[in-house]
Amino acid sequence: MATIIDGRALAREVQKQVKEEIEGLRRRWGLVPGLGVVLVGDDPASHLYVRNKEKACKEVGIRSQEHLLSAAVPEKDLLSLIHSLNRDKEIHGILVQLPLPPHIQAEKILQAVSPHKDIDGFHPVNQGLLLLGGEGFKPCTPMGIMRLLDSVGCDPKGKNAVVVGRSNIVGKPVALMLLARHATVTICHSRTVSLRDEVGRADIVVAAIGKPAMIRGEWIKPGAAVIDVGVNRAPTGKLVGDVEFETAKERAAYITPVPGGVGPMTICMLLFNTLKAAKESLQRET
Ligand code: NDP
Predict the structure, then answer these.
(1) Residues 154, 244: one domain?
(2) Which positions are catalytic?
(3) Is 197 exposed, middle or buried (0-12, 13-18, 19+ CB in 10 A)?
(4) What separation in angstroms does the CA of 236 have from each of 49, 181, 213, 239?
(5) Is 36 contained in some domain?
(6) pLDDT of 51-101, one tens digit each?
(7) From the CB of 215, is ligand 1 less than 6 Å away?
(8) Final residue before a domain boundary, out of 80, 114, 148
(9) 126 in a structural domain
(10) How far apart are CA 62 and CA 25, in angstroms?
(11) Cis (ω within 30 of 0) for the bond into 124?
């Protein structure tokens, strides 16, 4: 029977440390970290995510500045907003909530964000630094996943890690982070021939697919650590992950629940990255 990794408790702990450091910045330098939040359109899920992120900012002492734009906003207007946030000395991090409407090229917008303010770690410069092992901003969900593994003493070194999903925001970056920590990494996707066999060899499974209970409990290697990134709405209205939780927890040594696993850590890492951006802005000035 697995130990359930409590993402909410870990997030509270990290959030406390972030809050203390922000207090210190304010006392010593009079600096209040600022986050520019850009939300386009009226997708209810995006509005909920942004509300949760802003609430967390407030709790730790980050000043968030919200920019709500209509779904019909021209791309050039969104770009000029990003440019003005890039220039704003009181804004240290910029968050562009995805998805953007189809007439806007998301890549163009994300590339317009200054790499120094790219607290989501989506800019090609930061993605490149991650690949090269440099010190850029790393995407929040993968960072949270690594913290969750560390919290239960699961050292990836020498382990077989299987990441299911190859998105730029979760699958690929978490695979690189596991590789940097010396795991032997396999990345699976929709064309993988035998997902069951790949997962069956894994000491660490990261499921980032977006399909309810796609990873069957019986596939899990006994003693594995299972990190479930998926957030899916079941027909009952309940939130469920990508892993068949009830059966997987019988075989795994560690498993994250949905909700209450990866989600809270993602928000927490956003706060961490905003603090990092504020600290680095001070270093650039001195
Ligand atoms: P994407 O849709 O961008 O990527 C999904 C990946 O799953 C793709 O690489 C796809 O393969 C792969 N896939 C789809 N079907 C299969 C299959 N049958 N077998 C194997 N692989 C498959 O999703 P994201 O990475 O953005 O998100 C994944 C999930 O994580 C979603 O549920 C999302 O809501 C959740 N999420 C949760 C976060 C949190 O904080 N808790 C943060 C971010 C995401 P291919 O590339 O071949 O199409």
Answers:
(1) yes
(2) 53, 97, 120
(3) exposed
(4) 21, 39, 14, 9
(5) yes
(6) 999 999 999 999 999 999 999 999 999 999 999 999 999 999 999 999 999
(7) no
(8) 114
(9) no
(10) 11
(11) no
Task: Read off the pLDDT of each residue in 130-146 and give the average, rounded to a whole number.
Answer: 97
- Mean pLDDT on 247-267: 97
Please classify residue 200 by burial: count the beta carbons closer than 10 Å to its beta carbon, then call 0-12 exposed, 13-18 middle and 19+ buried.
middle
For residue range 106-116, list pLDDT tens digits in order: 999 999 999 99
What is the average pLDDT score of the chain? Answer: 97
Give me the CATH number covering residue 101: 3.40.50.10860
Cα(5) to ligand 1 centroid in Å equals: 21
Q: Considering only CA atoms, which of 247, 242, 163 is closest in space to residue 209?
A: 242
Confirm or reject: Cβ of 186 under 6 Å from ligand 1.
no
Q: What residue numbers bound the domain in which 223 lies?
A: 140-262
Choosing from 167, 233, 271 the residue with most ligand 1 atoms within 8 A of its CB, the one to mutate for a pocket test is 167
One domain for residues 150 and 233: yes
pTM for the model: 0.97
pLDDT tens digits, one per residue of 166-189: 999 999 999 999 999 999 999 999
Q: CATH no. for residue 199?
A: 3.40.50.720
pLDDT at 286 over 80: no
Residue 284 binned pLDDT confidence (cut-offs 50, 70, 90): confident
Query: Tokens for 259?
Result: 């909700």
For the chain, what's the residue count?
286
Produce one character per residue of 24-53: b if its CB has 16 or more CB atoms within 10 Å, e if not. Answer: ebeeeeebebbbbbbbbbebeebeebbeeb
Query: Residue 114 is encoded by which pair of tokens?
Result: 């200054």
pLDDT, tens digit (0-9, with 9 covering 90-100), for 151-164: 999 999 999 999 99
